[in-house]
Design a protein that fits this description.
11 helices, Rossmann fold, disordered C terminus, binds adenosine-5'-triphosphate, alpha/beta, single chain, 23% strand
């Protein structure tokens, strides 16, 4: 089956005053039609840069230096701005963590909802209005016509995020990329928004990529998951494979950090000792080795390839291969 989105060997470098920062390295990721794929990892692991590369919105100093991002066979890494802007908001859309950074405070919700629809030539003003109202209702906003004419500041954070979801759906995209869509919301609203996203995904046959550091979000909505660490994918597979039979010590650490967290409701990743290494300059070998209880000198010698643990479940760890998966569940991170 051809993937809707297929990322192969993606590398994104960012020019910084201290040197080149390798934000994403040799990333492979496939998303099928109708799939929800979560990308999970701590802050600074390259999740957002991956998402921004997919949608062609990388920061000024960042550039794709290797690899391809095939969206329905078209390589987005080679598209110019006109080509990308034709896809953005149309075939693929993005939902950000904080809607206020995307919503224009000086324009009504309705103007912002219909702008992309009209720009992409999806229909006239009447069709745009009708679709906007239909979607506002679908995402759970009552008194849709009243909201249509309001400005963003009149809405709560949860309602603004619902508006962002409606906006993402205006042009009937095939793929929605949501970067920490519920992080800024309280737990109850989070659950409601995730449920809405999942329902709409099924109803509209969308594919969803959800970037998160929250394993609770992954458990609720994902079919497949990619665990990222320091710019690399370290494990990928179905949710039950990756969290039921983890191959990488970092995945084990993520799970333990949730179990050990005092704040169980929010399921934040907080207790893996140590930090993500600086990604500036050349990094060789396993990037997790300084925090890994299973590390051996060989982990530092050369970059480690992904290995197959079972069908469709891969991980990037030398020790599992060479030492027959040493006490992975017994190690203390
Ligand atoms: N505009 C930028 N300029 C310089 N470095 C950047 C920029 N944006 C991201 N980075 C760096 O790229 C790396 C990956 O960052 P990214 O934002 O993708 O991580 P993340 O996993 O999404 O983390 P978070 O959850 O905090 O957003 C980090 O080292 C980060 O400091």
């Amino acid at each position: 089956m051809t993937s809707l989105l297929s990322i192969q060997g993606l590398q994104v470098d960012i020019a910084t005053p201290g040197g080149t920062l390798q934000a994403v390295k040799n990333l492979n990721l496939d998303v099928q039609r109708g799939e929800t794929h979560c990308i999970v990892g701590e802050s600074g692991c390259g999740k957002s840069i991956t998402a921004l590369a997919m949608i062609g919105l990388l920061p000024e100093k960042a550039r794709i230096t290797a690899g391809s991002i095939l969206f329905e066979q078209q390589n987005l890494a080679c598209l110019n701005e006109a080509g990308l802007s034709n896809l953005r908001g149309n075939r693929m859309a993005m939902i950000f963590q904080e809607p206020m950074t995307c919503l224009n405070p000086t324009l009504t919700i309705g103007t912002q909802l219909t702008e992309g629809f009209l720009r992409h030539g999806k229909g006239n003003r009447k069709a745009a209005y009708e679709r906007a109202i239909m979607l506002l209702e679908k995402v759970g906003i009552s008194a849709a016509d009243k909201r249509f004419h309001q400005y963003p500041y009149s809405l709560s954070g949860g309602l603004r995020q619902r508006v962002m979801i409606a906006m993402a759906l205006m042009c009937e995209p095939d793929l929605i990329i949501a970067d920490e869509p519920t992080t800024a919301l309280d737990v109850t609203v989070q659950a409601q928004i995730l449920a809405t996203l999942s329902e709409l995904k099924s109803e509209m046959g969308l594919s969803l990529i959800v970037i998160t550091h929250d394993l609770g979000v992954v458990a609720r909505i994902a079919d497949n998951v990619t665990v990222m660490y320091a710019g690399e994918a370290v494990e990928t597979g179905t949710v039950s494979q990756v969290f039921g039979n983890p191959g990488h010590p970092y995945t084990v650490g993520l799970q333990k950090s949730v179990v050990g967290s005092a704040d169980r409701d929010s399921q934040r990743l907080s207790v893996i000792p140590g930090r993500v290494p600086s990604l500036v300059g050349g990094l060789t070998g396993c990037r997790f080795r300084n925090r890994c209880p299973h590390a051996i000198p060989k982990c530092a010698e050369a970059d480690i390839d992904m290995s197959e643990l079972e069908a469709d479940h891969t991980y990037r760890c030398l020790r599992n291969v060479s030492a027959g998966r040493p006490e992975m569940t017994g190690g203390v991170l």
